[in-house]
Amino acid sequence: MSARTTSLILWVLLLLFFVRVLGQIVAAIWSPSFLPPMDAWYSGLMPYRFLLPSQLVILLFFAKIASDLYRGQGYWFERGKQAGSGLLLFGTIYFCAMIVRFWVQGLSIPVVFHWVLASFLLVLGSYYRTHSLPNGDSPLA
Which residue has better confidence, 139 or 96? Predict the structure, then answer.
């Protein structure tokens, strides 16, 4: 898969996460009847005053990664097989942990969007694993 195609998939995943963050903000401030209540949007493991800034950091960080891949240049364009392997391992553990959480707690908005974030890592890791030199170095190194 090309860098541009990978980037487009990452942008779709990022857009899904953005919609989640926006929906959570709207639910917290206005509680409209067409959205689930605020307690459905997050588990409460982290106070919302810390959760929202961390979500915004994730959005900005992942947007930079997707942008670099789309442009075909920048720090996050090519990172090598080792980075890809690490992302694939972490993404797989993260995804599987959310499967366990789903099994224990049932389907919830947080579980679905943790799968979205884990999928971002898996797609990115897969790209890095398949688009690096045989010795594991990045073509840009």
Answer: 96
